[in-house]
Every structure is written in C-alpha cells, then in structure tokens.
Amino acid sequence: MLLKVENLTKIFESGFIRIRSLKAVDNVSFTINEGEVVSIVGESGSGKSTLAKMILRLLPPTSGRILYKGKDIWKDFKSSSDLKNYWREVHAVFQDPYSSFNPYVQVNRVLYQALKLIGINPKSEEGKRLIEESLTRVGLNPSDVLGKYPHQLSGGQRQRLMIARNWIIKPKLLIADEAVSMIDASMRGTIIKLLLEMRDVLGTSIIFITHDIGLAYHISDRILVMYRGKLIEEDTPDDIINNPKHEYTMKLIKSVPLLYKKWTFD
Amino acid sequence: MSHLLKLENVRAYYVIKNRSSIKEVKAVDDVSLTLDESEIVGIVGESGCGKSTLTNVILMNIKPPLKFISGKVILWKDGKPIELNKLSRDRLKKEIWGREISIIPQFAMNALVPTYKVRRIITDIYKSHYETNSDEEYILNMAAKRFKELGLPEKVLNMYPFELSGGMKQRVIIAIATLMNPKLLVADEPTSALDVITQKMVLKTLLDIYHKGFIKSIIFVSHDIATVRQIATRLVVMYAGKIIEDGPVEEIISNPMHPYTKYLIRSVLTPERTTKRGEIVTVPGFPPDLSNPPSGCRFHPRCSYKRSRCLSDEPHMLKVNDKHYVACWLYS
Ligand SMILES: Nc1ncnc2c1ncn2[C@@H]1O[C@H](COP(=O)(O)OP(=O)(O)OP(=O)(O)O)[C@@H](O)[C@H]1O
Ligand SMILES: Nc1ncnc2c1ncn2[C@@H]1O[C@H](COP(=O)(O)OP(=O)(O)O)[C@@H](O)[C@H]1O
Ligand code: SF4
Ligand SMILES: [Mg+2]
Ligand SMILES: [Mg+2]
C-alpha cells in the first residue's frame, strides 16, 4: 500500500461576525496501491481539489491522517529533506494547462527545475539526456520546443510538457486534478495514454480527479464517488457503471453525454 | 425554409509582424456555409482549428491581428440579404450585434467584472456593445422578465458574479446575450468549463430560448462531439481552418465519411457498449501549423487512406446527398 487516507476532514471557516463553516471534505478514508489508477469523481464543489491539496501537503487537514508509505505526512516528517523527498515522489498535474506555466520562463527552464528537484545538473550529460528522453517520450520534438516560451506552444504541447516533467521526476504517485477536462476531446485520449504509460513503464500510481464518470470508466482500476465532501461509493468501473448503488452515482452517469444516444431533456 | 446566414469563400488570417518577417496564420481559409432558420448547428474540431475565429467572422467582429482577407458574410434581415463584411463597426453595433446575431464568447464566464453586480454588468454590456439608446430601467425590466422566463431568480440581478455557481453564471450570460431576441445565437464552448451535471442544465437553457422562439437558430461550438449532438440537428466538422464535412448529426455519427471525422468519433470516451472500456483511440500525429499548412489535403500527414493526389491537390466539397457534404478524394 502506497497511500492511506484515514478519516480525513477539512473545514473551511469564513466570515467575521457570523462565522460560517463548511465541511469541504468529510471523514474520507481510502487507500491507493502501487501501480493503481484510482479516479475520484464528483461534481464541482464536491471537495475533490481540497482532498488533492491535502494529499499534496499544500493544505493542512482539520482532522484525520494521510499515511504515505506508513508515515503521517503532516506529523512524521522531521526534516526538510523528508518533505523534499515527499514532493519528489508525490507530484501533481494541474487543472489548467493554460495558466500553470510562468509565461516568462522558457520551456528549458521548466525542465531544468524538474532536474534540480532530483539533484541533477541540467548542463551535465545526464541532464541533457533526460531532457531529450522525456520530451521524446511525450511526443515532443526537442528542437521544436526548446528555447520557446509557453505562449508559443499550443495547449496540447503545454500539456505534454507538463507530463514530460514527470518523466524526469518519475514520481511514485501522480495526482491529476481535472488534467484533461478542459482540453480538446481529441487530445484527451493522447494525454490519458501518456499518463497510463507512466503507470505501465514506471509503476506510477495515479489519482485521477474528474467530474466525468465516463472518462473515469475508461482509465481506472477503481472509482471513488464523492458527494458534498463524503465518499459515497467505491467500486470497479464496470460495477459502478452497470450497477450503481447510490442515487447520486446514477445521476452522474446519466449526465454524461453519450455519442449514440440523445437526451430528451425531460 | 428561409436563409439566415451565408458565408462565401471566406478567408480570415491572423497577420503577425515580426522584426524581419510577416507571418499569416490561416485560421479560416476558404470557408463556405449556408444556415437556414430553425437550424441548430454544431461546429466541432480540435483545438486551434479555427472554430473561435470562425465565430468572430460570422459576426464580422474583426480586430487586429485578425484580418478579413476575402469572401462574403451575408445575413438576411427582414427577408433582404446584407453583406456584413461591407458594414462599418459602428453600423454592426447599431444594427446587427445583439439584435440580429449575438455571441457568447469562449471564456465569457471568466470575463464578468467581479466587482459589479449583475444589473450593472447588463447595462454596461448593452451600452458598450450594442449602442442601444434604451434607458437602464427599460433594459433591466427586460432582463428581469427574461430571467423569470428562464427560471432564473430575479434576485440574481443584485448579486455579484462570485456569488453565482458556474452554471448560474453561464445561464445569466445566455439570458443577457439574447435579451433583444436576436435571430441567431453563436455560443462558443459554453459548457466546456462546467461539470457534466451543470453542462446538462446549460444545454437545456439554450434549448429553452430556442423552443420559446426568443431565437431562431443556434451555432454551437465545441470540441466535444458527444455534447454537441445532444442539441444540434446538423454537424459541421472543421480541420485546419477548413470545413471538411457537413451534414445531419445522426447521419454523420452513424456514417462518418471523412477520415478525420471517423477518428473524431472513435476517439470519444463515453461509457457506452460501442466504446470498449480502456480502448483509447487517438488521431495520430499532430495538429498542423496554420501559418504553414500541409499542401493538398491538409489532413494528409495524419491520414492512413492518403493517395498521391492528396499531397498535391486540395479536395473540394463533394455532395454525398442533399444535406451531407464531404471534402475528401476518397469519394470522387
Ligand atoms: N490573437 C491571435 N493572434 C495570432 N494567432 C491567433 C490568435 N488567436 C488565434 N490564433 C491562431 O489561430 C488559429 C485558430 O485559433 P482559434 O482560436 O480560432 O481555434 P479554436 O478552434 O477556437 O481552438 P480552441 O478549441 O482551443 O478554442 C490557431 O492556430 C491559433 O493559434
Ligand atoms: N480556500 C478555501 N476557502 C473556503 N472554502 C473553500 C476553499 N477551497 C475550497 N472551498 C470550498 O470547499 C468546497 C469544495 O471545493 P473543492 O475542493 O474545490 O471542490 P471540487 O474540486 O470538487 O470542485 C467548495 O464549497 C468550495 O467553495
Ligand atoms: S483527401 Fe486524401 S489525405 Fe485527405 S482525408 Fe481524404 S484520403 Fe485522407
Ligand atoms: Mg476542483
Ligand atoms: Mg476556441
């Protein structure tokens, strides 16, 4: 077992005079095994990103624990190198490919930063080899993209670049938060294939966060359904789609637009 | 059936001047399209193929670096054809935009001024985009009435954008764009940033304004064919600045003819028995650079059916039947 989430809760408090509190994540527990692809599915506001941020150690939980290889990521990391190591092994592919790169930083630098994270000098032979290798892996031509700025790349190229970074870092756990929802349907498949290839070649575990249960169906070993901060259903893709137990899961399935069936909008 | 809009061999390029060179991105290149009243047309194609540029051409909203190179954009108004490409921006604002054609731009949701209430956003849009002389109260009354008709609570007028959910925001935008009952509504990716449950609600609102007769026709742009088919009656497929297939939705989905359309349909990832779980089909190769598009058929570098002719000659639109057209040498 790579990751274990136990009774995780996050409460946001807002307002000055009348304090309102909101349970964004409510007593959530699940595990992720090595090499497993698990989707977390739910509508917008259901708490998916909040959950991801806690696992990425960007947001402290209100209560509950996150165990990575048996260590509590909020309590058991004693030194800054523990933390550095965690961020090397647990990595994110972000929501929006259009805004996640600094526009003034050349593509090369994006990859240099990744190399530095794993302690390799970008100018060394190994550094150069890794850059070439990772770009080729994701179907980018090094001479085509190196030296350019993010705005000079297409959305699809930027998304590939983000995954190329991961081929350098080779994380153990990849968290993809709506990484493909906003992008072009015909590019979606390409990106998903690249992610699954990381699992097949490197044994990377993947948490795939999406509002589209149809997408989750195609790529995951297991699907977790989230509703108003709670995990309400967990099963294999076939069982979830063919035999959903929770009413909300049914609603999610019914909302996926199908190619061969037209809605009646009743 | 009466004509509503006609594009004749339209070319619109982004002209980008560098220190030493001029680059032309051929985003809309020799596009022809006729739209009749009552049609709901879905325009699909991969990112960067020119869909949003085409929507701007339809409104003749041409701003640098975009340049209208050639062709005609004809709109029928009170039964008479008008060449929009000959009208000044001023006349477009006074006579066409908002009244005859309205657009919901891609990312419109993110463009709402966060510090203004919805009522202020509405009056501002009407003053700056459409040059209306109507007073604020009149516009706001119209808005309140329209909100009611679409099932939006009237109190939304006094709310700020951040207080609205994504779906609510998009429905407000639809209501605003169609206040003056334009004949044609052009909606550019109105659902792409929303979750699936909200998407369905927004599609329903679009159909509502259509069925209630507030608008006569819709052009719906999306990269997601499964979404488009839920409301469109006709499908237009774009590739690299050109229309490569055009026909009734059901017919194209069950019998796609252009090799690119075939890929597009097979790459859809929906939970259906026809799409096998885990079998992910993708279009091979990369989208072309529109400043230097491939010779002959622009799809040839990615096409597994290509013949020698495809490399040198551009295929014309070929009639399959009365309503179905395709541009591919396989069928001539
Ligand atoms: N302001 C601009 N300046 C220069 N080139 C542009 C500009 N806007 C768009 N382009 C280019 O024109 C082509 C068509 O772009 P367009 O925005 O119409 O595509 P699209 O089909 O709407 O894509 P998406 O699905 O990503 O919205 C692309 O090659 C794009 O890079
Ligand atoms: N920093 C924050 N402060 C207050 N509320 C927040 C914050 N981040 C998220 N929320 C709220 O928590 C809930 C869950 O949000 P989120 O995790 O982003 O959901 P999802 O990713 O599933 O769309 C929402 O109601 C959201 O408004
Ligand atoms: S014209 Fe030729 S290259 Fe183009 S789609 Fe048809 S077969 Fe393929
Ligand atoms: Mg989120
Ligand atoms: Mg666009």
Give the low-confidence spans of chain B: none
Q: How would you classify the helix and strand content of chain B by structural class? A: alpha/beta
Q: What is the end-to-end distance of chain A?
A: 45 Å
**Beta-strand percent range of chain B:** 15-25%
Which cofactor or ligand species appear?
adenosine-5'-triphosphate, adenosine-5'-diphosphate, iron/sulfur cluster, magnesium ion
Residue share in helix of chain B: 25-40%
CATH superfamily of chain B: P-loop containing nucleotide triphosphate hydrolases
Largest sheet of chain A: 6 strands, mixed
Secondary-structure element series of chain A = EEEHEEHEHHHHEHEHEEHH
> What is the CATH superfamily label of chain A?
P-loop containing nucleotide triphosphate hydrolases
Mean pLDDT of chain B: 93
Question: Can you put this structure into words, describing what you see?
Answer:
The complex is a heterodimer of chains A (266) and B (332). Chain A is of the alpha/beta class and 266 residues long. Chain A is built from ten helices and ten strands. Chain A has helices at 48-55, 80-89, 107-117, 125-137, 142-145, 155-169, 185-202, 213-219, 237-242, 247-255; strands spanning 3-14, 20-32, 37-41, 63-68, 71-72, 90-93, 173-177, 205-210, 222-227, 230-235. In chain A, the strands form two sheets. Chain A has a six-stranded mixed β-sheet, sandwiched between helices. In chain A, strand 1 (3-14) and strand 2 form a beta hairpin. The longest helix of chain A has 18 residues, at 185-202. Chain B contains ten helices and twelve strands. In chain B, the strands form two sheets. An eight-stranded mixed β-sheet of chain B has the order 6-7-8-3-9-10-12-11, with helices on both faces. In chain B, strands 2-1-4-5 form a four-stranded antiparallel β-sheet. In chain B, helix 6 (196-211) links the parallel strand 7 (184-188) and strand 8. The mean pLDDT of chain B is 93. The chains are: A alpha/beta (266), B alpha/beta (332). The A-B interface holds A 43-45, 139, 154-156, 182-190, 192-193, 211-215, 217-219, 237-238, 241, 251-253, 255-263, 265 and B 46-48, 165-166, 192-200, 203-204, 207, 223-227, 229-230, 253, 263-265, 267-272, 274-275, 277-283, 286-287. The structure holds adenosine-5'-triphosphate, adenosine-5'-diphosphate, iron/sulfur cluster (SF4) and magnesium ion (MG) (2 copies). One magnesium ion binds next to helix 1 of chain B.
